[in-house]
Design a protein that fits this description.
Its cofactor is FAD. It contains 25 helices and nine strands. The chain is an alpha/beta fold. Helix 6 (141-147) packs across helix 13 (317-334). Residues 265, 278-282, 285-286, 320-321, 323-324, 327, 410-411, 414-415, 418, 437, 441, 443-445, 448-449, 452-453, 456 line the site of flavin-adenine dinucleotide.
């Protein structure tokens, strides 16, 4: 008697592609009788992960492109989008479709692991075999962790050593040339609606979310969701998603052999636009529209062919992908605390302003929430100005506005704004910055985002806090004329290049000629006789830099980490007070009180130091060689408030 052939539910998640998909290959190797390509519209991501229109549009692009590609291989098939949480949907689906196998690409993200555990348990209970493969990274992150002694990879060297032990990075698998038919799709069961008491994306919605109005979409055809249904306004980003575009972009990059083979990240400009100086492949990889291994091997082949003069990791293109793997493996090892300071043994405790509030998660653990304590109204105002791109530092503002409109900024631009918000200006918690990036980036990747914020704030991965980005000198290094600023800060479009990074220094005549006034904080409704208004700088950068460095030095010498008892029970404060530190959480203002005004506040010289723009040298660090000012006689917030009052 012939045995029945498998009935496979293929669950697409972070792998919205057909090429180089080990999980899809495993599904096809089962020689299924039927295969349903399924995407579950998971309320966790709809309501509990912050994302604006730009990232949603990118996801929908990727889904549409994948669905079109599936249809090309089999006109009876497509991507079936089912609108319910996978945890409640799959048990019903297993029964309704008589599924024998569930196949998916593994995901090491914290929520995903929990979700997959539940779904796998339900599958076992239903007698459904679960087949999984890793596919998001160069190496299997869990294997890397195992080869790294069960520890997170906190440096590129550790990643390379562990990766070496895992073995050669697998060569990419070609896309299939045919796909089985899907079976019938009778959904004779009720849709379970998730509670929507928490909706972190409510601020982005201009209309009500209708995505769960019916389980198979408004026409019952399992269509891709639309931005309209989500209640979001149209996207503003020019960047579009999908495997077809991703592969085209990869081809274009690799066709320019010199660019690809000699790519050195520290030499790429954060001020370049149309085109940008790096590949812009990160959002494609985030959604799995491009395989990291295909990218890696294509880059490696170009390098090998090019020979002398080609770049090497970590600066090269392949090196960039190693950084990505390093963060994924670090997250895989640390789990939930990876995303935060609390309970994270690897993250230094720095008493930044605006610390996160904590709450119990869906899975019962304590984690940071999207709410924070306003310990300092002044720092809160700086944070708001940073987020809105109205700090009065044109290079920072240009980057933050590009982030808001396009959802992507160059890596060194991310360095600039992250350093400025944390240890090189505002002394605001890196978790606030990571939160804003989560909301605005089209390539937001939890592992890369949290890890890079830790790096930039010198709380983990990197410790050279005395290397600090100047919003003036760093921008000028790449773009003397300020073309990038002119593009994103149109108020300053006609300002003389001499003043474009520091409009406060411009003469009245220069400002008149450019048709701009420098006044206010940028948050209000600034209109002045038809002139453009650009905000005043929100602080004296040089002063803030020195305050932050002193505070960092103190925090490093106290040496607490996220899992220390003193951090958990709040007694850390005594240690810092004893050490004479004043720039810290809770040392200024009252919880929840509105901001004081910093209008007109801007002092002397902007810093002209050349900072480290490179992430690639001396990452052991820790030696304090350049700290100019260790003395903190009174809190900087105190000084500000005093000055504002006088
Ligand atoms: C504060 C901060 C937050 C960040 N948040 C994210 C994020 O949420 N998602 C994200 O993908 N990247 C993040 N990065 C890393 C990096 O900035 C982006 O990956 C990169 O700018 C994407 O542009 P690209 O594709 O042109 O990069 P390229 O320079 O062309 O590099 C190729 C690929 O390598 C990977 N890569 C390069 N650098 C890094 C890095 N430092 N860390 C991880 N992967 C890297 C990316 O996948 C990228 O697409 C962040 C960096 C900083 C400083």
């Amino acid at each position: 008697m012939a045995t029945a052939r498998p009935r496979v539910a293929y669950w697409f998640r972070t792998d919205l592609r057909l090429h180089d998909s080990p999980a899809l290959k495993a599904a096809l190797d089962l020689e299924p009788e039927v295969l349903w390509p399924i995407f579950t519209w998971d309320p966790h991501y709809v309501y509990r992960v912050k994302a604006g229109s730009n990232r949603w549009q990118y996801l929908l692009d990727c889904q549409q492109d994948l669905s079109d590609s599936i249809l090309k291989l089999n006109p009876k098939s497509k991507l079936f989008v089912i609108r319910e949480a996978p945890q409640t949907l799959f048990p019903k689906l297993f029964e309704a479709l008589k599924v024998t196998h569930l196949v998916f690409e593994r995901d090491t993200d914290v929520y995903a692991r929990e979700r997959d555990k539940l779904v796998t348990g339900a599958a076992k209970k239903a007698g459904v075999e679960v087949v999984t493969r890793y596919g998001r990274t160069l190496w299997d992150s869990d294997e890397v962790v195992a080869k790294n002694g069960g520890k997170p990879t906190m440096s590129i060297t550790q990643l390379q050593a562990a990766g070496h032990k895992v073995g050669e990075i697998p060569r990419p698998i070609p896309a299939p040339d045919r796909l089985p038919d899907p079976g019938e799709m009778p959904l004779h069961f009720d849709q379970e609606r998730a509670p929507t008491t928490v909706d972190l994306n409510a601020p982005h919605r201009s209309k009500a979310d209708k995505t769960y109005d019916s389980i198979a979409g408004p026409k019952g055809d399992f269509a891709i969701v639309t931005l309209e249904e989500l209640g979001f306004p149209a996207a503003t980003t020019p960047h579009r998603g999908g495997e077809t575009l991703a592969l085209k972009q990869l081809d274009k990059i690799m066709a320019d052999e010199k660019y690809a083979a000699t790519f050195r990240k520290p030499n790429t400009s954060p001020a370049a636009f149309e085109p940008q100086s790096t590949t812009l492949l990160s959002p494609h990889m985030h959604f799995g529209a491009l395989s990291a291994r295909l990218f890696y091997w294509r880059a490696r082949e170009v390098v090998e062919k090019y020979g002398k003069g080609a770049s090497k990791p970590p600066e090269s293109l392949t090196g960039q992908l190693l950084f990505r793997d390093m963060y994924f493996a670090a997250q895989a090892a640390i789990g939930l605390p990876y995303m935060q300071t609390l309970n994270n043994v690897y993250v230094r405790f720095i008493p930044w302003h605006l610390p996160s509030q904590h709450e119990e998660t869906e899975t019962g653990t304590v984690a940071i929430s999207s709410k924070y304590h306003i310990d300092s109204p002044q720092a809160n105002k700086w944070f708001k100005r940073w987020k809105a791109g109205v700090t009065g530092f044109p290079f920072v503002d240009a980057l933050m506005r590009q982030l808001r409109i396009e959802g992507w900024i160059h890596h060194l631009g991310r360095h600039m704004v992250a350093c400025f918000l944390t240890r090189g200006g505002c002394y605001v918690h890196w978790e606030r910055g990571a939160d804003v990036f989560e909301e605005l980036l089209i390539d937001h990747e939890p592992a890369s985002n949290a890890g890079n914020w830790q790096w930039l704030s010198c709380t983990a991965f990197f410790s050279q806090y005395f290397r600090c980005y100047s919003p003036v000198a760093f921008g000028q290094k790449w773009d003397k004329n300020g073309d990038f600023i002119r593009r994103w800060v149109p108020e300053l479009k006609h300002l003389d290049a001499k003043y474009i990074y520091e409009p406060r220094k411009a003469t009245r005549a220069a400002l008149d000629k450019a048709g701009v006034r420098v006044e206010g904080d940028g948050l209000g409704n600034n209109r002045n006789e038809g002139l453009n208004i650009y905000p005043e700088a929100m602080f004296d950068f040089k002063e803030r830099r020195s305050v932050c460095m002193s505070a960092m030095k103190r925090a490093f010498s106290i040496g607490l980490h996220g899992n220390d008892e003193a951090v958990r029970n709040g007694t850390w404060k005594q240690l810092f007070e004893r050490a004479g530190e004043t720039e810290m959480e809770g040392m200024d203002g009252v919880d929840g009180v509105g901001g004081s005004d910093d209008e007109g506040e801007y002092a002397d010289d902007a810093d002209a130091d050349h900072e480290s723009h490179h992430i690639l040298k001396g990452r052991k660090g820790g030696k304090h060689t350049r700290n100019k000012s260790d003395a903190v006689k009174e809190g900087p917030m105190d000084r500000h408030v005093k000055r504002l009052k006088s």
